[in-house]
Structure to design on (837 residues):
């Protein structure tokens, strides 16, 4: 059987030659993110903003009418209301801003919408998040992302050299910021699941970076007489096949969640798909490229031949 | 080759069998089928509320109200202690959560302080010249919060149990919050209504000569009296004696019934002590209005016709549902603090089962896609990776069942994602073997070296991912926590399957077949 070969053996691409182009690309998406954050801000879901969310399904499968629903709900004078299709044609997501007054007003508003739509719609889901909880979740989210970054940085520092840890963490921050940017640019709802997606992306991306760094470390010891530039390029090339195959299997799983996992998960899957792609990019072009700016010590000036069989030795 | 030791094989077989045993109950739907697997130790994985449908409520006890009440009762304790010790004082009052008074006469400040500390040694007492200022310390507040929450959880549980909701879960969160989870209940409005009432019931006499007809919203209450609204009619007021004659704690039972005019009402029965008190009060005050006060509002104020002892009726403009609920909350006791709903999430059964089937489809398709890809990429070694992948999934399901974790929709996504990422360990190993082979080693050496070198990479890579998962876990709100748990379990099992199971199969295969050109060659 002829096996699929995504990456040929013994590739020898000069990845570092295009690092300036790659940095430029990163710069563009990073500034895109900041501009979008200023212009669009983030489309915070009720998890963070507080408010009311209802998922309704029309009982008339043939003629669901979003305008009719909109008109109906506008009679409640509930302030800022957004109604959109959700997954299926018959399903609608109704978001209502936090109501004036105390918690009782919020609960009362849910009841009002329910009684109003009772005849034509079934309520599939109803959520209410008070502003106190929203703020707490926001803090907890920031805290979780920072905690993850910090613990990863310390671990890499401990296992590698400090230069690796700085390069890895900058690559990670790059991934986190641009994933946030994706949500801002596409105006996707930023909610608890988004935080989960960001952290998983971070986990995936660091996994990728560590695999390459591991090889860099190994090659630094192995080829002491070669330049850093050569070693970094060689390490990327040697791990390239694994990088691509793992990305493909993970993306396969993610696309399947995106298409078959239902509307609730599709944004989550989208964030992860972006995360895997940008994470793979950043491992090579941000993390390793940054290493070139450090003069990492290779140890003594003799090639380390322990563990390398005779026939494989360089000089 | 020592990797092919018997012990290793036994370890693998035993762990896979245990995995299958614990995973199996999850593959059968109806309870009858599960019955026939009763001999198995495992249980099904708990489904989160987002999958099985149900309601999640986050409640907060309004402790400020409780502190104010406790401060009130501290005030009367101070008053009676001072009187008992014959200490003269003036201007005893509460302002901004601080009790203050001025002493009159010769009593020493030390003595007054010790009298106050004898009430509660944790109080904060300051005095300037003749003025004393008393407030609760953090310790006081903490103690009050603790006892209040213990009571509140008990009462919340009783009220929910009375509604016959299945397997509710009621837990304290943080200092003053309660999480209520109600599986299978997609419209929690009745529960919310029940928990929204503190249900503090008191019986108090009305003013003998000031009647509701004489009162409007601007009327002032004479000393010892308080003006209260009528429950059903906010424009009608009563002048009520502040003294509580009988209170809800003395209730033994309450049930919905109908009064003589056949309108819904609640009948109650008092404890022996309560009955005695009730008899004394009603006996002495025939002809006066006796107000039934619920949560600070007057339900009704019937005129006492005869002496009543242990049983009575609460009448008001009630509907049948209202009398049911009122009887229920009276039976279960008053909440020690008003409850505020901070967060509510309810998922209907339709969405839940849709999510389950979407999750199933995504899992199956995800599994097939990854397996096919591995097969066409690695051939025979792809088969090995796929065996490891299936073992991996069995282990994940088994572990989730074993620790009775809650599987949520993001959790299912976590499993599918793990499928994609789990093969990573195998890919790392295979690619490394290939490299070693291409650099001139023979097959067996290449395999040996490939595993050895890949393992440190696998551990580094997976540990760092684990940190992200741990951060996610600490962030921990319901569904997200579920996701992080599956992710962590997936990391652990995929390392085990790659390092142990794949390795064993690969060695076994290459030894038996005596392969000299690897799979991996073009």
């Amino acid at each position: 059987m002829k096996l699929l070969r995504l990456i040929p053996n013994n590739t020898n691409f000069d990845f570092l030659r295009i690092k300036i182009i790659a940095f430029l690309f990163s710069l563009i998406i990073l500034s895109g993110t900041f501009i979008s954050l200023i212009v669009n801000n983030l489309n915070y879901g009720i998890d963070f903003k507080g408010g009311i969310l209802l998922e309704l399904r029309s009982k008339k499968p043939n003629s669901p009418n979003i305008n009719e629903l909109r008109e109906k709900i506008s009679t409640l004078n509930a302030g800022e209301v957004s109604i959109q299709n959700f997954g299926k044609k018959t399903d609608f997501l109704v978001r209502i801003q936090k109501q004036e007054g105390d918690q009782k007003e919020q609960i009362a508003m849910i009841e009002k919408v329910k009684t109003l739509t009772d005849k034509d719609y079934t309520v599939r889901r109803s959520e209410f998040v008070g502003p106190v909880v929203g703020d707490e979740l926001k803090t907890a989210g920031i805290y979780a992302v920072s905690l993850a970054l910090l613990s990863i940085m310390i671990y890499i520092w401990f296992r590698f050299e400090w230069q690796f840890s700085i390069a890895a963490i900058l690559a990670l921050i790059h991934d986190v910021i641009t994933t946030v940017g994706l949500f801002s640019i596409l105006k996707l709802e930023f909610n608890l699941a988004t935080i989960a997606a960001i952290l998983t992306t971070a986990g995936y991306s660091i996994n990728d970076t560590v695999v390459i760094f591991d090889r860099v470390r190994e090659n630094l010891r192995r080829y002491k007489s070669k330049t850093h530039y050569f070693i970094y390029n060689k390490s990327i090339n040697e791990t390239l096949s694994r990088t691509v195959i793992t990305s493909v299997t993970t993306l396969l799983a993610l696309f399947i969640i995106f298409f078959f996992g239902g509307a609730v998960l599709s944004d989550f899957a989208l964030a992860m798909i972006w995360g895997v792609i940008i994470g793979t990019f950043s491992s090579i072009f941000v993390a390793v490229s940054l290493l070139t700016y450090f003069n990492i010590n290779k140890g003594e000036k003799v090639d380390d031949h322990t563990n390398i069989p005779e026939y494989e030795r360089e000089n | 080759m020592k990797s092919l030791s018997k012990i290793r094989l036994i370890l693998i077989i035993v762990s896979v069998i245990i995995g299958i045993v614990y995973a199996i109950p999850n593959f059968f739907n109806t309870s009858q089928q599960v019955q026939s697997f009763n001999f198995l130790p495992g249980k099904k994985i708990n489904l989160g509320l987002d999958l099985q449908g149900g309601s999640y409520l986050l409640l907060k006890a309004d402790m400020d109200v409780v502190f104010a009440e406790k401060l009130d009762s501290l005030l009367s304790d101070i008053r009676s202690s001072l009187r008992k010790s014959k200490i003269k004082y003036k201007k005893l009052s509460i302002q901004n959560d601080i009790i203050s008074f001025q002493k009159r006469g010769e009593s020493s400040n030390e003595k007054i302080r010790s009298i106050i500390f004898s009430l509660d040694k944790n109080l904060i007492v300051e005095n300037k010249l003749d003025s004393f200022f008393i407030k609760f310390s953090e310790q006081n507040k903490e103690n009050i919060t603790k006892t209040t929450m213990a009571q509140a959880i008990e009462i919340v549980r009783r009220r929910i149990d009375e509604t016959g909701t299945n397997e509710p879960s009621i837990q304290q969160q943080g200092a003053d919050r309660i999480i209520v989870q109600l599986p299978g209940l997609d419209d929690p409005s009745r529960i919310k209504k029940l928990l929204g009432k503190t249900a503090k019931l008191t019986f108090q006499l009305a003013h003998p000569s000031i009647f509701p007809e004489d009162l409007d919203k601007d009327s002032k209450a004479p000393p010892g009296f308080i003006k209260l609204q009528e429950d059903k009619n906010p424009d009608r007021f009563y002048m009520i004696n502040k003294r509580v004659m009988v209170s809800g704690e003395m209730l033994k039972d309450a049930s919905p019934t109908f009064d003589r005019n056949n309108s819904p009402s609640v009948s109650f029965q008092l404890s022996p002590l309560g009955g005695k008190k009730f008899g004394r009060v009603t006996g002495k005050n025939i002809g006066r209005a006796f107000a039934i006060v619920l949560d600070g509002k007057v339900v009704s104020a019937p005129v006492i016709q005869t002496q009543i002892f242990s049983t009575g009726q609460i009448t008001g403009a009630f509907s049948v549902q209202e009398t049911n609920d009122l009887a229920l909350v009276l039976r279960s006791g008053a909440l020690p603090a008003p409850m505020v709903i901070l967060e509510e999430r309810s998922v209907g059964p339709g969405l839940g089962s849709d999510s389950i089937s979407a999750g199933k489809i995504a899992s199956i398709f995800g599994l097939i896609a990854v397996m096919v890809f591995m097969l066409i990429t690695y051939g025979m070694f792809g088969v090995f990776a796929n065996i490891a992948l299936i073992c991996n999934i069995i282990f994940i399901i088994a572990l989730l069942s074993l620790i009775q974790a809650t599987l949520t929709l993001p959790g299912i996504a976590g499993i599918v994602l793990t499928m994609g990422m789990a093969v990573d360990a195998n890919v790392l190993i295979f690619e490394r073997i290939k490299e070693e082979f291409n650099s001139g080693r023979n097959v067996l050496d290449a395999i040996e070296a490939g595993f050895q070198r890949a393992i440190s990479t696998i551990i580094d890579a997976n540990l760092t991912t684990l940190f992200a998962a741990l951060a996610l876990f600490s962030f921990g709100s319901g569904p997200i926590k579920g996701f992080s748990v599956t992710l962590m379990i997936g990391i652990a099992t995929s390392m085990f399957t790659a390092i142990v199971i794949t390795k064993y199969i690969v060695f076994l295969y290459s030894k038996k077949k005596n392969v000299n050109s690897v799979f991996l060659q073009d």
Observations:
- The first strand of chain B starts at residue 46 and ends at 47.
- The radius of gyration of chain B is 35 Å.
